[in-house]
Each structure stands twice: as structure tokens, then as C-alpha cells.
Design goal:
Elements: H1 11-20, H2 26-30, H3 34-46, E1 47-50, H4 53-63, E2 82-85, H5 90-94, H6 98-110, E3 117-120, H7 126-136, E4 144-148, H8 156-169, E5 180-184, H9 191-203, E6 210-214, H10 218-224, E7 236-240, E8 257-261, E9 283-286, H11 291-294, E10 307-310, E11 314-316, E12 319-321, H12 330-337, E13 349-354, H13 359-363, E14 374-379, H14 385-394, E15 404-408, H15 410-413, H16 427-440, E16 446-448, E17 455-457, E18 463-465
């Protein structure tokens, strides 16, 4: 048979095909020929998302390699726009020799001249060195940084870092477009490091829209974070609860979104945020017991809070956030919601966490969220199919403005990326649920039953998955006992009643047989 010449597509068409291809196809496409390699390699390295040690080690070894030793002699690190090293690498990394990986990681990041987003949540002292590398060279495209800063006092790297930071202090910080900065600081910092953090925040005051500084030491927080009045562009702020007690902090602030972490902090029953603090606040993220401090019924003025996120609950594709320390009871969320009536704006967005999907208790939240538009629910137990189906008539039908309902299995992902709800990849079952939901609401357009993919309602009224589910079963399936009605929270409620009105500021628990103090 005569040899058949390979069909060569026009460059423009190849670019179009590659731009529409899934990320998993890029390695194979890059090996097709030189032209495909030149097109696919920048797309392949544009976003790097590392969850496990083996992949991370191979990746940083390639990025740190001398360009002259690579095919086409390219500096692959310069192609990276987003670099994410997740904390899920932590346990594996502890069992591996650190120096080689640390050196390769630092060298890789130092070469990322076009980096836009950097996230390193791996607990290791080289993150301080990473911070230094970001400031040693111009980073004109850098917009977002998130680092977990660990510094060992007896590490030989610490002394070198102190000298390096003194040199950096004499320079102009080369991050002119930085709009998001997240620093998690569990330990002490040296004076020069503190000065650099504060200097970067001050230097980027005109562009910094999102700031997170979480440390249990209030004095250290005050040294790093300048007065909020000097940050005119700031809209989102994440802090530890201790910072709320700093005198004058938050006074007449223009911050619209506030996330309060409660690590090793017990709130006093009489603690109330002064009414002149956070007057423009529209989004609040905190644990349920802190909501009354922001929406106290006797406050002189109230805040226009229209979005509430309880217990760190947040939905994200293949990720998200939730409280790993404790799973709040449904009644905790109910009690927090009862204070929303004191907001000057109706609640439009609500995210919370529960052990399991309990329809009767879900119904008790409805009187407080009549105008709700989106709901995120983090569940630590895989819901029963009949309970998910019941959401249509019991919940969705009674929320006329609801357009987004997201059920998250992020709690499972901490056990491994292939862990999920038992029905997470069952398209047929999820389509039946969506058909039932559509019977009760024409406004619902965005639904998820897992963090692995979502469903969007098209203009033709049909539901389409944002991506096809993985072609493999989940690694973990709960036993029937884990999904029983007796797990984690007592079920001895008289679920026939519902809450009709609020006589005082608290939620009505009189229809429950067991008082909150008696929960086991």
C-alpha cells in the first residue's frame, strides 16, 4: 500500500482545535509534530495544579531545568501563568527528602517571569524564600499571591533570608498590579520580614482589592496590616476573630466582604461589633455564633448584609472549603439565620455546612430566606437519593428567586481527589433530579450534586453538564450506617411544625424534643 501523507491543517485551525481541547489532551497533541508542540506547550504549562508529591516533583524538575537541555531550548517556567501547590501534598512531602524539592521549587518560581497567580499552601520553610524570589525580579503580570509562611528558627536558610530581605527593603517592590494577597502566618516573623509585608501592602494600596492576613498574634497583625483607611481599593478582607477586638479596627471601613476565622478563639456572649465598624459590609463569612455580633437586634445602625457564609462553606470546582474542626448542627444555622432579619438588605446568597441532608430541618430555614438566589450546602455524609429528589417540592418550589443550588462533597476530597458522593458520576440519576426540579421552578439555572462538575440550563430549556464525569467509580462509598438518620445529630424532632415568625431575636426551638445543650 502506498504511504499516505499526513494531513496538515492550517495554523489558524490548529490554534482553534487546541484552544477547544481538554487539558488532558495537550501532552499527546504536543508530541504530534513540531507545529503542534509550539501551539500546545504554552497551553499545557499555562496552568499548573499540583495535588500529589510525585507529580509535583516531576513538574518542578522540568521547570527548573536549564533551557538548553530541553526540546526547542525554551524556558518552560516563563510559560506559567497560574501555579498552585495544594496542601494535599503535605503528608507525602514529609516522608520525602526536602532539600532537593525545595531547591527545585524555588528555582522554578524564580524563572516564572509571567506568573499571574501563585498559591503555595505546602507547610515548609522554603515559602519564605519563595516570597523573596517574587520580589527580587520584576513581576509585571503578578496579580494574586497566597502563601502559608513557615520559618524554622534553626534553619540555615533563615539567616540568609534575613540578609536578603534587608536588600529587598532598599528596592522598589516590583508588583505593580497585585490585587490579591493572602498570607497565613502561624509563627513569628523577623522585623525585616514584617517591614516587607507591610511595605508591599502599602505600595499596592491603589490596586489591592483582596487581602487576607491570618495570624493568632494580634500584635503581629497590627504590624503587618496598615490602617484600612489607607487601602481605598480594598473590598475583601480575611482575618482571625481576634482582630475584631483591636480598638478602632474596621471603623468606617469601606470593606464590603469580610471573612472571619475563629481559630482557638472563644467569643464572649456579650461581644458586639461596634455599629460604626464595617458599615458597608454586604458579605459576611464566619461561624454561626458570631453572626449576632454583626447583626445585633439592639444596634443603633444595621449593616446591609445580603450574603452569608457559615463555617467556611464555599463551593469551587474540584475544591472549595468547609470547617474541618466541627460540623455545625442544622439548628446552629437556623439560629444564625434568625438574625438576618435585622439586616437592612434581604439575604440573597447563603452557604452553610451540615452533616447530612435533612429535608425537615431545611424547611425550617425557608421563612428567613424568602428572597434567596443561591444556596451552597456542604455535606459530610452522602445524601440519600430520595432526599435529593425531595428538594424539588420541599425547597425549590418555595423559593421563587432561587437560580443556583450547589451540593458540595469537598469534605470527601480531603481523603483523595477520587473520593466523592456515591452518585457524583451518575448522569442518568442526576438528570431525573433535574427534571423534578424543573417541574417546580423555571428560574433554576445552575445546579451541582458534586464539586466535579455542574449543570447549566441552556436557552432551549435542556440541562447540560459543564464537563463529562470521570470514567471510573469513586474510591470511597459510605456504609448504610454512615448515612442513617441517627448519625451525628439527634433526630428526635417533631418535624411537623415550621417557623412562622420571630418573636425575639433567637430561633424557635420549642418544637424540638432535645435542647441544644443536650446534643451529643
Amino acid at each position: 500500500m502506498a504511504a499516505v501523507s499526513r494531513l496538515r491543517l492550517p495554523i489558524e485551525l490548529l490554534h482553534m482545535v487546541c484552544s477547544l481541547a481538554s487539558h488532558s489532551y495537550f501532552p499527546a497533541l504536543a508530541l504530534a509534530d513540531k507545529t503542534c508542540n509550539e501551539i500546545c506547550t504554552p497551553l499545557l504549562y499555562r496552568t499548573i495544579n499540583l495535588y500529589d508529591y510525585d507529580t509535583a516533583q516531576k513538574c518542578v524538575r522540568t521547570l527548573a531545568a536549564d533551557p538548553s537541555t530541553l526540546f526547542l531550548k525554551r524556558n518552560l517556567a516563563s510559560l506559567v501563568r497560574t501555579f498552585l501547590l495544594h496542601s494535599s501534598c503535605h503528608e507525602a512531602l514529609l516522608e520525602q527528602p526536602h532539600p532537593t524539592f525545595d531547591t527545585l521549587l524555588i528555582e522554578s518560581i524564580s524563572r516564572m517571569s509571567n506568573i499571574q497567580t501563585l498559591r503555595c499552601m505546602e507547610a515548609r520553610d522554603c515559602t519564605i524564600h519563595i516570597w523573596a524570589q517574587l520580589l527580587l525580579r520584576p513581576r509585571p503580570a503578578l496579580r494574586s499571591i497566597e502563601l502559608l509562611l513557615i520559618m524554622s528558627s534553626n534553619s540555615p536558610r533563615t539567616a540568609r533570608m534575613e540578609q536578603l530581605f534587608r536588600q529587598i527593603l532598599n528596592r522598589r517592590f516590583p508588583v505593580p498590579r497585585l490585587s490579591e494577597l493572602k498570607l497565613h502566618i502561624p509563627l513569628e516573623l523577623t522585623p525585616s520580614m514584617i517591614a516587607i509585608f507591610r511595605g508591599v501592602i502599602t505600595c499596592c494600596a491603589a490596586t489591592l482589592r483582596s487581602l487576607s492576613v491570618t495570624t493568632l498574634q494580634t500584635s503581629l497583625f497590627q504590624l503587618i496590616v496598615p490602617p484600612l483607611s489607607t487601602l481605598p481599593a480594598l473590598q475583601y478582607l480575611e482575618i482571625e476573630a481576634q482582630a475584631l477586638q483591636i480598638r478602632g479596627f474596621g471603623h468606617l471601613s469601606t470593606v464590603q466582604s469580610l471573612c472571619v476565622r475563629q481559630t482557638m478563639w472563644q467569643m464572649h456572649d456579650d461581644f458586639v461589633v461596634p455599629p460604626t465598624h464595617w458599615p458597608a459590609l454586604r458579605e459576611l463569612a464566619c461561624f454561626p455564633d458570631l453572626v449576632p455580633a454583626f447583626l445585633h437586634p439592639e444596634a443603633e445602625t444595621q449593616r446591609p448584609i445580603c450574603a452569608l457564609r457559615l463555617s467556611d462553606a464555599a463551593y469551587k470546582h474540584n475544591g472549595g472549603d468547609y470547617s474541618t474542626d466541627t460540623t455545625p448542627y442544622w439548628r446552629d444555622s437556623l439560629d444564625a439565620l434568625s438574625y438576618v432579619t435585622y439586616s437592612t438588605s434581604p439575604l440573597l446568597h447563603f452557604a452553610f455546612q451540615a452533616a447530612k441532608l435533612h429535608i425537615k430541618r431545611f424547611e425550617k430555614l425557608l421563612p428567613y430566606i424568602p428572597s434567596i438566589e443561591s444556596i451552597v450546602l456542604i455535606l459530610t455524609s452522602s445524601p440519600k437519593p430520595e432526599d435529593v429528589l425531595a428538594l424539588g417540592e420541599a425547597i425549590i418550589a418555595r423559593l421563587p428567586r432561587l437560580h443556583t443550588l450547589l451540593l458540595s462533597d469537598v469534605a470527601y476530597k480531603y481523603g483523595g481527589q477520587n473520593h466523592a458522593f456515591r452518585f457524583a458520576r451518575d448522569l442518568a440519576l442526576q438528570r431525573r433530579w433535574l427534571a423534578e426540579f424543573a417541574r417546580h421552578s423555571s428560574r433554576l439555572r445552575h445546579v451541582a450534586f458534586t464539586t466535579e462538575f455542574e449543570w447549566e440550563k441552556g436557552a432551549d430549556g435542556a440541562w447540560y453538564p459543564t464537563e463529562l464525569p470521570r470514567d471510573r467509580p469513586v474510591d470511597f462509598v459510605e456504609s448504610d450506617a454512615d448515612d442513617s438518620d441517627g448519625s451525628l445529630e439527634p433526630d428526635s424532632e417533631d418535624d411537623g411544625g415550621s417557623i412562622g415568625s420571630i418573636e425575639e431575636h433567637g430561633a424557635d426551638f420549642e418544637d424540638e424534643d432535645a435542647a441544644p445543650a443536650e446534643e451529643d
